[in-house]
Fold this protein.
Amino acid sequence: MNRLRQALDPFLLLLIATVALASLLPARGEGARIAGIVADAGIVLLFFLHGAKLSREAIWSGAKAWKLHLATLGTTFVAFPILGLIVGRFGFVPSDMRAGLLFLTLLPSTVQSSIAFTAIARGNVAAAVVSASFSNLLGIFLTPLLVALLMQKSGSGSLISLSSVEGIVLQLLLPFVVGHLMRPWIGGFIGRHKAMIGRVDRGSILLVVYSAFSAAVVEGLWSQVSSEELLVLAGLCIGMLVLILLFTLLLGRMLGLSREDAIVLQFCGSKKSLASGVPIAGVLFPASTVGPILLPIMLFHQIQLMACAWLARRYGAQPAAELAPAE
């Protein structure tokens, strides 16, 4: 009975309902623009509240976790691409799909969902902010380089998007800093309303899922491949995610990371950013191939959100004593 209740986690059901809603009633035109604005506002509020909640000591401790950050970057930009190269040798997978699967393994980590899930799981949020943000910023430069090296594709123009850098700074880091600077005045209020913080975490993820999946559906997500190919692709995405989650779990234990830091490694190391993948693909690949190449990351993005939502709630439900740092 307990396992059934965990499987029917309300937040996971909300995620599935959100995907279904976006598939049946995707935001289009002006509605899509409004949905994007609301999702962005939710993310800004999320980071503002996290900044206000964290103490200066916690932030400094997160920034000093160099072993954790190197492990996360190694998983994102080394272990994941190796896995993508292995999957690319599977002959039964169509060539465009293989290219898309390799491309998704070269992308940086997500930011907002990685941090939100870390918070839900009661992990080291300060370290997650540093690790995920640095991964995303580094990915703007490193992902195109890895694509050029591993996919043997040539692109024209600059692959460094100033607007992407500005988005990360203005939408994520700046609200976090402002919230932290306002901590002396609003920290007490935030501490007394932890349930509100949890609702903002979950609400921001639902908004991002709806906005991103709506855009994918409008672009013809369900008409680009047959149902059989979609099942194969979903199976490969699930398998890759399971392998990376197990890899990060074992790597955290090998490095002797505390439970809080091991949670960061799992959630930041196992994620791939759809937000970064779309503009990079638009620059690197011909317009006629962008859709099939993006399909794996679109599908993987939804799978990782659902799987990590369940995992985060499972970690968050564990007794506080189990979250003590390893000796």
